[in-house]
Q: What sequence folds into this?
């Protein structure tokens, strides 16, 4: 019995130490599809990346030449209307980045280059599941460097109209508490509270699809949105039924997708968060506003370094250097 206990303890220790180190992809992962808003075809390839490089988006030129590159960070967000758009002073670089970011964050992928040859990340089936499948097929590798996190040190909240979002401290891990309320009997009020781990992300979040209402279709189309939307990539809700023949993947698929979006948007912190994110009637705009409020308050967060089985706080007073190290200012 003693020998068996020691062997199990050693195996558990190795698993903990592996989880505390940075990761990247073993091989490239490629997906092709249309953008839900642009309707344009694009090919996206997720490449392995080096230690401490974080997630970078690379937009290729029209002729296939290497184009613009931008670090996925909170300051790279240029728009949040119906999707999260990344860009810089030259303009938008990539729209609807949240689903691939959620997949990378949900699977604990620290370093990657997301190469795309079009203006928008392919919507695929409207969820993060195709990105998860592609990443898992490519495989992951553990790198010889400790994983770094952003620990939330005090509550930071934002209210926008009847929406409210807040990041709160937590002893370990990342948790989402998402509440939605829509004036539609098929959606109504839904609540999801979940600790986000690779296992829970795959099982509870990744397959939840984006959704929209029939009543909004003409308005969105006239405004230039939803040009590629269909029942193949969007849960369409009418006044009295789900239009998609297969119905819902979860009874509360709507709030689960809002959680997926929040995980992707908060990945723009540049490092995994240790804390709880609570959102009421939120969306991309609120997610970005809360993350921005956190980053703008140097006393509200600190970078911690997972060394072995413990965590070492790097000191909340080194604000400028910490932000640069975390890739937050990119």
A:
């Amino acid at each position: 019995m003693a020998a068996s206990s020691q062997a199990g303890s050693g195996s558990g220790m190795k698993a903990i130490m592996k989880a505390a180190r940075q990761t990247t992809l073993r091989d490239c992962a490629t997906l092709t599809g249309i953008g839900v808003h642009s309707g344009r075809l694009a090919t996206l390839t997720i490449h392995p990346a080096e230690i401490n490089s974080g997630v970078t988006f690379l937009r290729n030129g029209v002729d296939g030449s290497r184009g613009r590159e931008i670090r996925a960070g909170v300051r790279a967000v240029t728009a949040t209307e119906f999707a999260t758009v990344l860009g810089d002073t030259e303009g938008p670089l990539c729209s609807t980045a949240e689903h691939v970011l959620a997949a990378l964050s949900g699977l604990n992928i620290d370093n990657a280059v997301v190469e795309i040859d079009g203006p928008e990340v392919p919507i695929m089936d409207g969820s993060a599941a195709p990105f998860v499948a592609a990443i898992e097929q490519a495989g992951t590798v553990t790198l010889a460097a400790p994983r770094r996190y952003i620990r939330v040190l005090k509550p930071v909240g934002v209210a926008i109209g009847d929406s409210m979002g807040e990041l709160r401290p937590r002893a370990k891990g990342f948790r989402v508490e998402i509440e939605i309320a829509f004036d539609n009997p098929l959606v109504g009020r839904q609540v999801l509270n979940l600790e986000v781990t690779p296992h829970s992300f795959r099982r509870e979040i990744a397959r939840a699809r984006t959704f929209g209402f029939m009543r909004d279709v003409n308005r969105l189309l006239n405004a230039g949105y939803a040009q590629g939307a269909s029942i193949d990539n969007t849960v369409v809700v009418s006044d009295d039924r789900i239009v998609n023949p297969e119905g819902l993947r979860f009874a509360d698929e709507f709030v689960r997708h809002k959680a997926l979006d929040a995980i992707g948007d908060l990945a723009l912190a540049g490092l995994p968060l240790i804390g709880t994110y609570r959102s009421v009637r939120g969306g991309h705009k609120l997610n970005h506003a809360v993350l921005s409020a956190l980053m703008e308050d140097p006393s509200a967060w600190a970078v911690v370094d997972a060394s072995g089985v413990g965590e070492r706080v790097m000191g909340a007073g080194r604000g400028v250097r910490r932000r640069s190290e975390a890739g937050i200012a990119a």
About this structure: Residues 1-9, 308-330 have pLDDT under 50 and may be disordered. The chain has one domain: 2-326. The radius of gyration is 20 Å. Residues 2-326 form a domain with the lpxc deacetylase, domain 1 fold (CATH 3.30.1700.10).
